[in-house]
Design brief:
- The chain is of the alpha+beta class.
- It has 2 domains: 148 residues, Penicillin-binding protein 2a (Domain 2) (Alpha-Beta Complex); 363 residues, DD-peptidase/beta-lactamase superfamily (Beta-lactamase), CATH 3.40.710.
- The protein is 36% helix and 18% strand.
- It has 22 helices and 20 strands.
- The strands form 6 sheets. Strands 2, 3, 4, 5, 10 and 16 form a 6-stranded mixed beta sheet that branches.
- Helix 10 runs antiparallel to helix 21.
- The protein is elongated and about 105 Å long.
Length: 615
């Protein structure tokens, strides 16, 4: 019998079709069981409830071991939407002291939030009061699908250092996308060390696996907790701050706008960092955080603006020591070089005023008397020295390079968020304004005395003071002294050496010492302690001049370097000098000498806040 090849072909076609259908079913079955988490999640949620266990956040101590920031429990009302059955909403709302409209609004917000799922725990209400928590705990059996999640909130032992300590806030969509550690409703550091040391402070979450019965009721821990994962507490921090000194410096700055920064020169550790006006950090804790935060944002005194780190000010005469160092390094002057001062710098039709003092004078007395003319003449001698540099622009770049090495014009790298770099112009900046080859020292002479386009932060000014105190090096300033069970980052241990030879710093330190013994800083003198200082009166186009000071003590083996900047404070000797001197005395001796008590009282009780100040 002849073979029917048509039927033979059909057999293979039908067989192939069956194989393809079988493969499709197998692939879909694999996708459902292995790849599609929806059904696995559904099955797991029927049998288990996985509760996140939040770790204790790391504690924060000051340099002397005093507890500054600690934790307190808080309770959130959580729900798994698919497990919620019809319930008495009036009883529920009365228990939590909310209205039915508020409940509906919260439910709508929850459904619209990123990461919403009917299978996973969702937060309905955050941070219950102890009273509300107690009432709900007694009635929780009436509301299936709801449970209470314990969390950690921050608490503070002192209403101080808000700009350094920062706070914590609820994560947003960007936080969750950036770091898979976070889930909706979690908290993260916001501002200060809470932000910059978040990964150390937050710890590692744990998980508690609970069993459900067929009706979804919790029956206890699955296999006696064998599958639970314990949370790991965050690491404790020991700050370099002296919290007592911080509070004292803040008390001197009450009624003023500005900053105080004190550094231990040997280590770069920040002893206090004041930004005023400030706020009580407890305002940003609890259910009123949002309301309080909005009020702080709308406050026209900018309490959230950290003037110590972010305030870019003309440094004024605190800048003059950098000029002396550059002129010595570049061979523009020697210690015997003198320049005249005819109540100011006069060159052609240009005049930069100065107060009365002896003339001519060399470098050290120029620092002692804060002579504008000396540093203007030195700047002109360098910038216009074409025989050495070729052009004014080339000389200016050498000048700028030295300043950058001393910590100006760029961020220092402090371990806090939001640091400003200040501002140093370069040759291209002036070429755009005046044209290439069409400007000289006299065109930009104001930068020689810390005015014009020069801007610096109080932190940068304090770092310069620490560099002079160390006679030629600094360690990047930082506010954390130790991290529990962790080695400090190397950048806070290394010395940085500016381009100025160490031998030149002695002359600057001696000039600053002379300023205290018989110059512009006489109010900085502390009984029994050799203090070095430099005043600054920074011109302000928006109002009254700013009062500035930088100094260190003792003269030999310095233990503290400080910078003070008081907006609209007038002469440097009016507010900057006494506040800086009192901060140094308080740190070095623990008290204030009786004869200096009237000055202390004057600083604490004076108020000079003006509406037209700038940041």
């Amino acid at each position: 019998m002849r073979k029917n090849y048509e039927l033979e072909k059909r057999k293979y076609i039908i067989g192939g079709f069956i194989v393809i259908v079988a493969l499709v079913y197998l692939v879909r079955l694999f996708d459902l069981q292995i790849n599609d988490a929806k059904y696995k999640q559904s099955a797991d949620s029927n049998a288990f409830l996985k509760k996140t266990v939040y770790p204790s956040r790391g504690l924060v101590y000051d340099r002397n071991g005093e507890l500054v920031v600690f934790n307190q429990p808080a309770y959130d009302v959580m729900m798994i939407p698919r497990d919620v059955h019809p319930f008495d909403t009036l009883d529920f709302c009365a228990t939590l002291n909310i209205t039915p409209d508020d409940l509906n609004r919260r439910l709508d917000d929850m459904r619209r939030s990123a990461g919403y799922s009917t299978y996973t725990p969702q937060r309905l209400l955050a941070q219950l009061s102890v009273q509300d928590y107690g009432r709900l705990q007694e009635k929780l059996y009436r509301f299936p699908g709801f449970f209470i999640q314990k969390r950690i909130l921050r608490q503070y032992n002192h209403p101080t250092a808000a700009n350094v300590l920062g706070n914590i806030r609820e994560v947003n969509a960007d936080d969750i996308e950036r770091d898979d550690y976070y889930s909706p409703g979690d908290y993260t550091g916001d501002l200060g060390i809470e932000k910059s040391y978040e990964t150390y402070l937050r710890g590692v979450k744990g998980v508690e696996v609970l069993m459900r019965d067929a009706h979804g009721r919790i029956q206890g821990r699955y296999e006696d907790g064998a599958h639970d994962v314990a949370p790991v507490s965050g690491r404790d921090l020991r700050l370099s701050l002296d919290i007592g000194l911080q509070m004292y410096a803040e008390s001197l700055m009450v009624g003023k706008r500005g900053a105080v920064v004190a550094i231990e020169p040997e280590t770069g550790e920040i002893l206090c960092m004041v930004s005023m006006p400030s706020y009580d950090p407890t305002l940003l804790v609890g259910r009123q955080r949002g309301v309080n935060y909005r009020a702080l944002v709308q406050d026209n005194s900018w309490p959230l603006f950290d003037r110590a780190l972010m305030g870019a000010y003309p440094p004024g005469s605190t800048f003059k020591p950098t000029q002396g160092l550059i002129f010595l390094q570049e061979g523009i002057i020697t210690l015997e070089t003198t320049y005249p001062c005819s109540h100011g710098y006069i060159s052609g039709g240009l005049r930069v005023g100065c107060h009365g003092h002896a003339s001519p004078l060399p470098l050290k007395p120029a620092i002692q008397t804060s002579c504008n003319a000396f540093f203007c003449w030195g700047f002109k001698a360098m910038i216009d020295k074409r025989s050495k540099y070729g052009t004014s622009a080339a000389a200016f770049e050498v000048w700028k390079h030295h300043l950058v090495s001393m910590g100006y014009g760029y961020k220092l790298g402090v371990d806090l968020p939001g640091e400003s770099r200040g501002f140093l112009p370069n040759d291209r900046f002036y070429n755009r304004f005046y044209g290439e080859g069409h400007w000289s020292a006299n065109t930009v002479i104001s930068v020689a005395i810390g005015q014009g386009e020069i801007l610096a932060t109080p932190l940068q000014i304090a770092n310069l003071s620490a560099t002079i105190a160390n006679r030629g090096h600094f360690i990047t300033p930082h506010v954390v002294k130790e991290i529990q069970d962790t080695v400090m980052p190397v950048e806070f241990l290394q010395r940085h050496y500016p381009t100025i030879e160490a031998r030149h710093y002695d002359a600057i330190a001696e000039g600053m010492r002379m300023a205290v013994t018989g110059g512009t800083c006489r109010r900085a003198a502390i009984p029994g302690i050799e203090v070095c200082g430099k005043t600054g009166t920074a011109q302000n186009p928006h109002g009254k001049d700013h009062s500035a000071f930088m100094g260190f003590a003792p003269y030999q083996n310095p233990r503290i370097a400080v910078a003070v900047y008081v907006e609209n404070g007038g002469w440097g000797a009016t507010y900057g000098v006494p506040i800086g001197s009192l901060v140094m005395e308080k740190y070095l001796t623990g008290t204030i000498a009786p004869e200096r008590k009237p000055m202390e009282s004057m600083m604490m009780n004076s108020s000079i806040i003006y509406a037209n100040t700038q940041r």
